[in-house]
Queue: 4 jobs
Job 1
Amino acid sequence: MLDTLTGLIEFEGLLTFGRAIILVVLGLLLASLSARLTARALRARLTPQLLQLARRGVFYGLLGVFIAAALAELGFSIGVIMGAAGVLTVALGFASQTTASNLISGLFLIGERSFEIGDIIRVGDTTGEVLSIDALSVKLRTFDNLFVRIPNESLIKSEVTTLSRFPIRRLDLQLGVAYKEDIAQVREVLMAVADANPLCLDEPAPLFIFTGFGDSALEIQFSVWAKRENFLALRNGITAEIKVAFDTAGIEIPFPHRSIYTGEVSKPFPIRLVNEDGGNAAAHHGEQAATGNSQKEE
Amino acid sequence: MAAPRKSQPSAWWTPRDVDEGRSLCFTLGPLSMVLGHGQDEWMLKVESAEEADSDANSTRLNVRKGLPEEADERFVHSGEAACVALSPRLADRPIVIRPRQPVFLLGGQQVTLYLSTPVWLRVEVSEPPVLLKEFPVMRMSDTWFGPSTRDGELCYAGRTHARHHLAELPERAHRAITPMTIRNDSGKPVPLEKISLPVPMLSLYGAADGSLWTQRVTLTLEDQAEQARVRIDSDLPEVQRKLDLLAGPRIEGGRSGMTRAWNLLLGN
């Protein structure tokens, strides 16, 4: 009789275990199905970021419900679990300060909407396209196709430049022209180049700023505007055109200059020639000349 | 003052047949185009010259034997019909036009400026018409029009001589003329430095002599308001010739008026 009793208990236990497993499996299936349906239904209305959030929310929510049901089936009391979890949370809390900070920063980042999925951002030295804004980090794809993970905390604390926020962008070119050039003529040539380039916007007008008298050249900043998508094409196009225009107009872009004086500008630089023995080459040369002369006379 | 070989102006937008093995050669102002009908395909070669260099009044269209040696683009289409329809269209973005010299409109005065904008060419073949390509007759410079660098829209930039007498207008077959009436109801003189023409909302009309026109646009500047009322007339411009409707507006009007308004006052 004891055998049949233990056998019955075991069988009962096995049944409950089986039911719990079935509940979890069912939960997984249902959750993933609902998540996919929700995503499809809301695709037109939400941004990719919110869509991902909604999808994950539905999935984990439903799964959580089913797991709780499975646990209840197995006989665990939710209250006891919550109690244990409370104690564990305090311990974990101290250990996971950064994670919590990242989580909250992530929520604020999404709420602020300074950048979204698909935008191009620059953080420090890294520039890339935002692939996803996750709970703890933001994932970027750089232009040389590398995958970068940036913790949300560092994004909240530091400067983030969103390159794709505004539709037009200004290109600042730093040029130097030789001191002998006429600044008014340089300005005319540059404005003509900007006018002729169709990618360069007429309005806002190109900006010509004389930044200063540099060491080797007159320093000039020439700023032109373009549609953001045309920025690279403009940068390559207009620099080549400026070079050609300068060459045609005879405007010189100088190399760095160094002038060496021996203390007085007007006096020539004294030079003494030495031959290989170290003797005075000038004296030697004079002797040679004399010998040469006498030889000729003979 | 007549050019040595002035071509007879005519409406070039009537459809014509280009059989297989033949090409259509078309010159309109700075644009020259060759469209060849190959075997199950159409070959297109386009060249655009500088507007200042080209003979603005030359419109030549003829069909000759032979295909272009090097085509820029080839369109595969195995239709039997050989008819080609070239038609003009207006620009796809608004055009910001600046007068070459500053023009001041004194208080209580009204002026009608004739502004011209380059047209787009639409090439369609076969019956029913299949669009091959739609492209501008000349490349125009981009410009930005808006209250700041954050809001606004991308437009094309143009210059104008701001002629206000019809007789002074040169005949340029590749440009569509918009008569724009500006009324200054305020007491102060107003500088006309930048005029944004809402070209996608205008319709294109053509005359038998090949000239292209749009409806009249009226701009009324009132006294206290910063904004001006813009109205696009629905009737044809009075130009003493018969006009046929060639194309409707790209964007239907409606709330067109007020958004275009403060353009004139952005002059400074």
Job 2
Amino acid sequence: MKPAWPRHWSLMVKLPLTITLMVFAAALIMGLVVIERDGKRQSARLEQQTLALARAVAAAGQEGLLSRDVWALYRTLDQLVDHAASEGGDAAVIDAMFLDPSGIVLAHTNPTDNPIGLPLPIGDDAARQSLAHALSAVSAHLVPVDIAPAGVIAAVVPIRVDESSVGLLLLRSSTRMMEAQLRVDALLVLAFALGLAFVTSAMGSVISRRMVSPLRDLSLGLGAVTRGEHGPVPLGEALDRDEIGQLTEQFNLMVDELAKNKRLEQDLANAERLAGLGRFAAGLAHEVNNPLGGMKNCVAMLARRPDDVDLVRKYVPLLDSGLNRIAATLQSLLAELRGESTLHACEMGCLGGLEGMVRAAIGESAVTLEWAVTPQDLSGVAIRCSCPQVNQIVLNLTRNALTALAGAGWLRVATRREGQEIVLEVADNGPGIDASAQRQLFEPFYTTSRQGSGLGLWITYNLIQRMGGRISVDSAPGQGARFTVRLPLVAATLATTELATTGGTERAA
Amino acid sequence: MIDRRRFIAATAAASVFSAARKAAALGAGGALRFGLTAVVVREHKRSFNQLAAYLSLRLGRPVSFVHRRSYDDIMGMLARGELDAAWICGYPYVQPRYPEYLALLVAPVYLGAPLYRSLLIVPKDSPARRMADLRGKVFAFSDPNSNSGYLVPRGAVADAGFDPDQFFRLTFFTYSHAETVLAVARGMADGGAVDSYVYDVMQKYEPDTVSGTQVIARSPTYGFPPIVARQDLDPEVRDRLRAALVGMKTDPEAAPILHLLTLDGFAEVSPALYQPIRALAQRAQVPALTPAKEQP
């Protein structure tokens, strides 16, 4: 989520950049194609202009050529070439010349370098051959040869009288002006493409901002959901009814639904907690009731023989112990009812008082209980818990086991220490649980019995989770079931004497 | 080719001679037709418009200037009576005519005398310093009937001991002293011969062209190209024309025109002034001085 620049470029950058580059490339290519076409057209026009000018000059010079009036020929060249230049045409005339049939210069626009009465001073043999070819030509034409190097258009007009050559006109014009114009055009096209790219990049960034910012909000929202924050995620309103808009809307619905489910789960958990407390209260009543019978007997005996000191010495400690136990049980119930669910370290000794409750649950049924909870093993170690919760875990698991045994079989509850973990096992030899049922075992509302709410194991699972522990089941149909709870140890600094004392092994029958 | 042109001109002149007399007589009451040649800067039109206006006023009849490219054209027109007067060169003037149909009117006075020179010019950066340096080069003449632009340079070549017909690689005629200056300035010709008066006037009006050239030799003085009239022009008109031209020197109204023309005025001169040109023509080995058909 963090903007890692520049390794990951945001869509907000990539999208307008792509659009801009594409528009720029398209504008550039189109412009260059236009220039290319225009260049060809201009080139053709320049060739035509050059040829037309050459024809005009040749026609004007015919009389002078016949009479060998070199000054008249020069004046013709001078005036027509000057005229062509002043007309501002593209045909920037480099030079023009009248040659006699043997290639002798009769007139040249640059007489200093091309003296009249001498052969045209041209460089190599190839050029000379080209000139010879031009001299033998019959019709006006352009020479794309050595007389006309790159950037030069040369027009040759043979001047013939009565089918015999009297000389020729050679006119060369430069394409430089045209090329300069084309370069200016190319720069204009480039500037236009850049301008267009600038405009589209601005437009692209606006569009992508509209498109991408809801995506980013969605991404942030999904991150929040992933972290388990089911609270309302601040999501922008969908700007358009396009795909992204629909996605945003669907996401908002999903978050609402998740939040609703979360609330429902919490409600259910609360309800189950209260139901659990109810069951606990029932057990508690039994727990309280156990000593009460003996205590009532003691009180009755003491009332009958108030002066029997031996009797007082014997029964008062018993009454005190029974009352202490009831007080401790009630205290933990009050804590639970007040919702003091904060976890603190507790000694495992608090499990000691559970046996009676489990036996009470077994009652008269033919279930053999093996109670292998050994407080000696557990003394001095602590886990993150509250005693009622640990009791609730054991009670839930034993209740399930007793349900599965349906009144006959054996039930084993055992604890041991394995490294930095306390292991708590509840095993039975009931009908067992098949693999598919095992997968759903800890889901809420999953139940196989008609009376069950399907919440017992789910609550157990949640309690264990809160303690940082884990639960597993080992079972197969017909093989019984063994639930194993592993709870991590914490430093035993919070061990309380109260728990230690109440965890004493005073057992009621 | 020049021979042929001259031959045609002379033949034409002879055949239309008598008809021309009649035409001239008929046209006596009309405009006075004045021919101009390369001896003046024809392009300098303003000065001639003013001169025409001035002479019209003095003569009491319109005066129109007629420009032709070559001396031959003007001489032919004079012979045929198509012109009443003309400003020609000393060389055509001294060429024999049978019968004589021209009368010497006046000669312009330039720098205090009716004299001028021929200047040998080369391009500004040319290394040539004398006529001998131009051997095998291209040379621009003004007109085959020009003294300063043709006879003098040919004479100079002959004086240097060369054959004027073989000395240059190529020669051409510009039919105008001004264009000779242009041809040399542009490098079309490696050398040229021009009228010193025209060169001076050009220096005033076309300094850019003149600055492309340099003068490497000056000829001795010759009689300034004269103004002639048809011999059969009404003597009264001829006298008035001569008087008007001569009078310009002292007429304040004519001063601006003379200033434009860069002349001191006009003066009556003796035909003997042009005798040296005849001698030069023989030295310069020019073709026959007399029209072919009318040689005695």
Job 3
Amino acid sequence: MSTQGEKDRLELLQGTLDVLILRTLIFGPHHGQGIARAIQQTSDDELLVEHGALYPALQRLESRGWISAEWGTSSNNRKARFYRLTKTGRTQLVKETAKWKRLSAAIGRILEFPAAEG
Amino acid sequence: MLWHTRKQSDFDAEIEAHIALEADRLKEEGFSEQEARAAARRAFGNVTQAQEQFYESNHWRWWDELRQDSRYGLRQLLRSPAFTVVAIVTLALGIGANTAIFSLTDQILLRTLPVPEPQQLVVLRSPGPQGGHCWSDIDNCAQSFSYPMYKALREKSSVFSGLLTYRAIGVNVSGHGATQTAQGVLVSGNYFQTLEIQPTLGRLLTANDETASGANTVAVLSYGYWSRQFGADPSIVNQSLVVNGVPLTVVGVAHKGFNGIQIGDAPDIFIPVTMKLQMMPTEGHPLEARDDFWLPVAGRLKPGIIRVEAQASLRSIYAALLEEDGKIRGAFSPEGLKRYRSKPLLLIGGAHGRLVLQQDAKEPLLVLMSMVGLVLLIACANVAGLLVVRGEARQREVAVRLAMGARRARLIRQLLTESLLIGIAGGAAGIALASWGIRAMVHAIPPGQGMLGLASSLDYRVLGFAIALTLATTLIFGLAPALRATDVDVHSDLKEQGSRVSESRSGVGLRKALIVAQVSLTAVLLAGAGLFARTLENLEHADLGVNADHVLQFSVSPDLNGNTPAQTLQFADSARREIAGLPGVGSVSISTIRMFSDDDMGFNITPQGYPMAHDEDTNVRATYIGPSYFPTLGIPILAGREFTEADGATSHKVCVINEKLAQRFFAGRNPIGLHIAQGAGTNVHPDIEIVGIVANSKWDNPRSDVVPFLYMPYSQEPRLGALTFYVRSDREPEPMAATLRSAIKRLDPNLPVNSMRAIAAQISDSLFDARLVAGLSVSLALVAALMAALGLYGVLSYIVVRRTREIGVRMALGGQRSDILRLVIGQGLWLTVLGGVIGTFVALIASQWVARLLYGITARDPATFLTVSVLLAMVSGLACYLPARRATKVDPIVSLRYE
């Protein structure tokens, strides 16, 4: 868990980070580092989130109005910028989730199609 | 969300917080302080990249760059103040002239009436026979209706939410001890409701104020009159004003800015139309007269009804009304009734009100708009030319910046920002110039030209126009030079900077094209200026047939103070005697219609022994005059005599005719002693004896043709009302005017004296439009010529500087000064000739379009076009010669050493 380079992690597909951020925020406000940790932990450390890439994504979501931000204090008393899911963000998440499920199911069906048959 | 922006520092703080939090977490897992921080940074990745990405996505960046560009641009402009000042002044002239002329055009031609839903308004028009008395300001009486016809249309038609009528009149208003003249307007009771005008104070007129002739003694004041004349005193409501001798109760004040439905009108008092007989005492026709066509009619269509539908639905109604009307009048033959009955009723769009002033003002305004437009184009070309030179001079800077990785779009934006700074400064100065110009123009409008109520300040519409113009201008003059300046081959430009032998590439080509454009536009403007200036000169020196020097004229309306025609006659006689006895007065006379004004009178005549063709139009113009009229105005008496005191109300009727009338109706006969009748038809008997013939003279204005004219003595005018006095005197006009005023005051202290003017000034007033067009076109053309000369001078000087080395080489190899002179002048001359030819060609075509505005010359007047060519050649010759002379002063040794 400590040395991240050792494990063979999955790189994030373009555009997936946005959905993951939205999903993470459904449990309540989080700061950037917390979001990065949460994605990594929830995916059982399968996904690699380069922390630096997180912020442009947050910036993008904020300017679209899907999340809102506010400076606050973290549990260990550090100042941090907390992100919160907005109402439009919530509906967006529902849409994006459905889309992802369909996509992954479709890809799954193709990949698991018994090639030898016929 | 648009302006949701974060500062970079805020973003940096967040990243800092992130790394600290991550480090904290790693420390908990047992890393040392140092290791934890390093690992956290590693996990974050590239901080700078994240920061840059943030910056790129941030709106502040755009703003930052604009500020940067502006600061940089400002520094660049301040570094070359001469360029900056010339560019700004050039643009200010162009934008200022356009804005000022646009303000006039907007007010007169473009703006709709300040009433709700103006596009629902229509004006009624019915061309065709009338067979009665008609009054008309335009359109040959087709827009005049009788009151009974108006009322019948109002009752029978179902397409209007309101149908109104109005008629402007002059009134005398007494109150607060003095009697003054004012602009009155007779209106139908539903006038304000139909137009949806709200009162500022009290109430406006209603249908209940139009009950019976003479019964509605109320009045509404316009906002302007109320504030000007009564200091906006709210206690005016329910007070009484004596208007034309009749006390009227003021019931309210109309909305601010409402000036009736005719641009150029500025009514002071609105009076119910039923007060006609009291307000127009010498008019003579009762309100219910069916043969008196005197009222313009306008209506508001019901929502959803379009003009064509309304016109169709009115067709049968109007035909029935005409039939009934014709039968009641009984004045028509069966054939005449059929023609009367089939008159159409047309609806003209009324969003701009009734178009009276527009008819005369439209062409001059469009010409002026085109001219100022051309000047602005020339200004743009000039500034663009200057920018191209700057672009050339800055090629190295641009090349360096491109080499350092600047994007071209970014550089173009930078250059456009600079142009925008020039544009904004020029636009601001132009707006200041325009606000001065529009005030000067509006205040220069003489009274009596039907151009009242024009605003002399710039409003938001005009400001919007000026700003849009500025931005468009910036783009026009800025874009091409910016594209050109950034189109740089980095390698060659950095290498061979400054050491080229001859000039090259499109920078100079673009400037030459600009010069040709400028010269040709200038040629067009000069041709226009020449034509209009000669027109004005011709008009000012037109032979009027009148000796107008040293003659003062003024008007009074004793009838509007309740005088009967007999009392007015007595007044006229005694006023004439009183004035004749004043010191300094040479002679004095009177006419009932004022010379060189919009007023006129005319009727058909039946000359004795004249074989009249069927339906022949024998219309002549006429006025009633007093004794010594012809000597006072310097009109020669050719035969017979003028009127004397002996030609009285009861003596036999006499008249004097002008030469034109004599030629038309008495060709080959001696008219003296023959008779004429007023009116035509089978039952008229020529009963007015011709006692004299006088020379032709013009009546309306210098433009008009001489027409057959009939003079009769005012003592024989049964409805004597308004009087205009003519006083010839060798005294200065100012003190003489004061003497005349007090003489009238001695006779009748309550009689207002109007329009005291020297006849020469009155004539000059009537040439106002010609003078405005000529004055503006000449100044614009001179500005254009100056700009073109500057442009030509600039491009040649530049070429000389660029070719210094080449010239040096030529001279070192034995080239003569004259060769060099020819080389440089030849370059400039070629451009001028090309531009001049194109411009003259365009002007020859365009001048046809203004032919109607010209007087005494043709649109292709050879002398004018020749003068323009010579002028253009002289100006450009000078502009070429100066740089050429400098070229001959090039010292070959210096120029070859210089590098």
Job 4
Amino acid sequence: MIKRLIHILVMPCKQATLLIEQQNAGEIPFVQKIRLRVHLTICKWCSAYNRKVHAMESMMKNIFTQDSPEKFSKNELELFKDKLKDKLK
Amino acid sequence: MDKRSEHIQQWIDTYSDTLLNSALFLLSDRQDAEDIVQNVFISAFESYHSFQGRSSVKTWLMAILKNKVAEFYRKKYRHTGNIPLDHYFDREGSWKHDDILQDWNEKDDNLLDNSDFNSVMAECLDKLPLKWLIPVKLYYLEEKKAASVCQETGVTTTNLWKILQRSRMQLRECLEFNWFNIS
């Protein structure tokens, strides 16, 4: 019942969760920002989700910045160069 | 050997390192990176005469690389458009399940430094389709500059938001199942 009311009055949760992404990237249009804020104040589902998104943001940032792929080794590099130089003679 | 070949040989020596590691960063796959850098040098060889030294060689080669990477993604992930969310939302767009309401008790221990948690996280990320994982990863590595992620991967901004939203939904579910024990 509450869910339906929120849906009719503000916007569906499906859209709110998309706007959360834009909000976090700092690329949300002003009107949408207000609507999202209203939605989050009255919708406990999305505000719970929003807390989890924030938690995931730092987890993802953390994991992506710490395990960057191993760079090409000297050997690999030399092999690559020789092969290519041969090809483009 | 003519001047062109001589120059190309020299460039291969000087710039392979930078190009390969940039490509690896953008593609997350060694073989793809090697293939694409090889194509960069082939392109440079073919269009050698149009390079007039207006920019540095490195800038020129990097520009070719970026074009190749975008082209690569466009070909590979042409169909990222439709991302269904029916699993999470009903026809009216409301949450289907109430499990979203259960909070995570992440504050107890320092999760970010917990290696068990991070390996669960890595496994969950591995389960994302590659066509989502790459833009998501770049989004974080490039400090959320949506425009440059879109340029590098060939996805539209609208699709990037959808990819982030969908990946997050899937990741949340995976983490709750494998770590937070919410079901």
